[in-house]
Every structure is written in structure tokens, then in C-alpha cells.
Amino acid sequence: MTVLVHRTPELLAAATAARLVTALVDAQAAHGTASVVLTGGRTGGAVLEQVRASPARDAVDWSRVDVYWGDERFLPAGDPERNETQARAALLDHVPVDPARVHAMAPSDGEFGDDPDAAAVAYADILGPTPTFDVCLLGVGEEGHTASIFPDSPAVHETERTVVAVRDCPKPPPTRVSLTLPTIRRSAQVWLMTTGAGKAEAVASALGGAGEVELPAAGARGRDRTLWLLDEAAAHLA
Ligand SMILES: O=C(O)[C@H](O)[C@@H](O)[C@H](O)[C@H](O)COP(=O)(O)O
């Protein structure tokens, strides 16, 4: 595990965007394609905005990038609170991705109707039984959640299914679809990105050895590399 601390949230977003462009270019050089798992939240969105603004952006062959989400708010298509909506506005609508390679989690008004369990099963079918990702981007909540995996929740105890429905989330909206920790751990690299003093306790707990049931972000590890990308405020108790 590597911890990188940047002075401000803006520097974190810009530096992580540069890191992501490089990681995608490296993945394409190594095996022809690149796969990235996107996250919701302010930090994740800021990174995508910085990728869009990056002069190096189009070093990536966007037509050979597979885009997934770590979680999604189970809302109607196009809802401004959906992670997909925000990622499209921040980046995906501004680069020539192949629509067939952008794998959004189903909305609540789609083919599976208002059934998050069916949406989760459908996403698991898209991933297949042994998904792998080059880079998995994740945020961290004040109480230590990541994706939509909350402390001591059914999702954090899930070891069989790759994708689950999540209900009664402490962070609104209450219903979501989320990768599970074992699926996140199938990523080559996991990058946990967060800023602000409000996250400092969760960060310190995760880096201090907390277990994943009480602190799900602590269970988000990559096969090859795990990066904690922080600003000084989020890092100040670690
Ligand atoms: O759908 C979501 O809400 C996110 O996936 C969630 O896991 C988020 O990344 C964290 O809550 C951190 O959010 P901030 O970066 O806005 O603090």
C-alpha cells in the first residue's frame, strides 16, 4: 500500500488525473485495452473533470477503454444524482469512447424496472464470473464506506455475489447497486481518493489496521497496487 498526500483537493484531482491518463496508456501498451472502474462522489468527479482538461487526455485511445462503475445510485436514467450522469458530464461525453464499452449499471426505470436486485444480477452477468480491471477508482465516506459498501452491512459480508443491491444506505439516495469487496480486489490497482478533515478519522482507521467490516475502505485492495490518494486535511490523523 502506498499513501500519497497532496497539499490541496485541487492538486489531488489534477495529479490523480495525470496518473490515470498514464495508467490507461500503460495498460493499452501492455495488453491493447484499458479498463477503469469509476466512482461517484465529489473527489471522483473532480478527477474526471481534470482528465477532460488534461493536455495529455488524448494519449489514451478512448475507443479501447472499457468503463465500469463501482457503484450506482438506483435512480431513473439521466437523473443528475446518478454516477453515470455525472461521469458523462465530467468526461465521457467529451472523449470518443465506444458506447458498447461503457458499462453503466441499470437505472430504476430501465428494463429491470424498480428492482435493484435484478439490476445487480444483470451487471454481474456483464462482468462475468472472473472480472479484472486495470484501475478501480474509489471514494471514501466519513464512516469508512467505499463504493456503496457500508460498515457492517449485508454488502460488506458478501463473499459469493460480485454485484449486490444495497438498501437503506446512510448516504442518500438510499437504494444503490454496488460491486462487492472481493470484486473490487480483482482489480490490478485500487486507488482510494479522498479529501477533507471529515475523512481523516476513517483514513487513519483504515491505514491503522481497521478491519473491513467496520471500515469497508480498508478491504479495498488491488492485486498489484493499492494507493491512498489524499489531501493534507484527510491525511492529518494518519
Ligand atoms: O455513489 C457514491 O456516493 C460514491 O460511490 C461513494 O462511495 C463516494 O465515493 C463516497 O461517499 C465519497 O464521496 P465524496 O468524494 O463526495 O466525499
From TrEMBL:
It is an enzyme of class 3 (hydrolase). It holds the Pfam family Glucosamine_iso. The keyword Iron does not apply. GO terms for molecular function: 6-phosphogluconolactonase activity. It catalyses: 6-phospho-D-glucono-1,5-lactone + H2O = 6-phospho-D-gluconate + H(+). Pathway: Carbohydrate degradation; pentose phosphate pathway; D-ribulose 5-phosphate from D-glucose 6-phosphate (oxidative stage): step 2/3. It comes from the Bacteria. Its EC number is 3.1.1.31. CDD domains: 6PGL. Keywords: Hydrolase. Residues 8-228 form the Glucosamine/galactosamine-6-phosphate isomerase domain. Hydrolysis of 6-phosphogluconolactone to 6-phosphogluconate. Belongs to the glucosamine/galactosamine-6-phosphate isomerase family. 6-phosphogluconolactonase subfamily. PANTHER family: 6-PHOSPHOGLUCONOLACTONASE. This is 6-phosphogluconolactonase. It comes from Actinophytocola gossypii.
